[in-house]
Amino acid sequence: MRTPFRMHAVVAALGLAGAAFLGTAHAQAIKIAMVIPTTGPLTQYGDMVKEGATTAVEMANAAGGINGKKIELVPVDDACEPKQGPVAANRVVNSKIGYVIGPVCSGASIAAAPIYNNEGVVVVTPSATSPALTDGKNYHFIFRTIGRNDQQGPAAAKFIITQAKPKKVAILHDKQSYGQGIAASVRDDLKKANVPVALFEGINAGDSDYSAVITKLKGAGVDFVYFGGYHPEMGLLLRQAAEQGLKVKMMGPEGVGNPEVNAIAGAAVEGMLVTLPADFSANPKNAAVVKAFKDAKRNASGAFQLTSFAAAQSLLDSIKAVGDNPAKVADHLHKATIDTVIGPVSWSKQGDLKAFDFQVFQWHKDGSKTLAK
């Protein structure tokens, strides 16, 4: 294992992350696009990724930059929308930026990946978990610093089978790449374990009334509901289930693990189960990084802050090793093992992490979470 790039200090925000997209910057700066949703209903996930990437870049710049050059983060909005993914990708390419942290959401990532790969832009997504991003694509420039749905789904299914032990399960999803994919993964593992799945059904993301599906859940006599999707829909499902007297345990993937779910669900959020990346902020080896987050009034313990920090580390470490050359950086990532805040990381031929730790947490109405047992 090579010795990774070390970041020893943190400074106050330099304003780089908020620079205008086509604004002039330090002539020698290494530009990294940060493709996140800054508009739309999923901006909170963009905020998580921004906090992680910005903290990593601030620490790197305070330590002298990379090979004498400062790093500049350039925010690009894709609204987490598949239709906007290629638009954002073309903005990155036209601005001659060779590196991307993001995209955040699977649908937008899948839509944009061919452009990035064909144009030789190195992408490290800290949050897109759909296997469809990389399976069968033969991409050379696309990587993740998070596990896939077919790693997260089994973690959820194992908990349901061995801990929750429901009598009858309903599985809902939002009909999108991310949500439907992970829901199918959970369903398949439950069926293998002979856990009855009474219902597998999609709901429309963005709807405001799920009373019809709540009625169907009541009629099916389920005692456990798994939902594949994001927090706006999960919050409504929780609240409306409580309002209609449906008393079931509900569980979702990391897409529901957002403090905003509390504002939507209210007290009904108490006890929601969620699979999330392990709490890397609790690792004593990350104490200096966690302090940097706190000093900047940021939260290191969210779903994607430290996976995005690790994405930045992976890019910066590789640039330090082989120079500011995206093709060489991609080659390096395929061969390297890099020491990051989420542990040593290395990638398969198709850019997926060889291992990743998803854990099950219980969500509380005060916005905190505890490891589920």
UniProtKB/TrEMBL annotation:
<keyword id="KW-0732">Signal</keyword>
<dbReference type="InterPro" id="IPR028082">
    <property type="entry name" value="Peripla_BP_I"/>
</dbReference>
<protein>
    <submittedName>
        <fullName>Branched-chain amino acid ABC transporter substrate-binding protein</fullName>
    </submittedName>
</protein>
<comment type="similarity">
    <text>Belongs to the leucine-binding protein family.</text>
</comment>
<keyword id="KW-0029">Amino-acid transport</keyword>
<dbReference type="InterPro" id="IPR028081">
    <property type="entry name" value="Leu-bd"/>
</dbReference>
<dbReference type="GO" id="GO:0006865">
    <property type="term" value="P:amino acid transport"/>
</dbReference>
<feature type="domain" description="Leucine-binding protein">
    <location>
        <begin position="30"/>
        <end position="367"/>
    </location>
</feature>
<dbReference type="Pfam" id="PF13458">
    <property type="entry name" value="Peripla_BP_6"/>
</dbReference>
<dbReference type="InterPro" id="IPR000709">
    <property type="entry name" value="Leu_Ile_Val-bd"/>
</dbReference>
<keyword id="KW-0813">Transport</keyword>
<feature type="signal peptide">
    <location>
        <begin position="1"/>
        <end position="27"/>
    </location>
</feature>
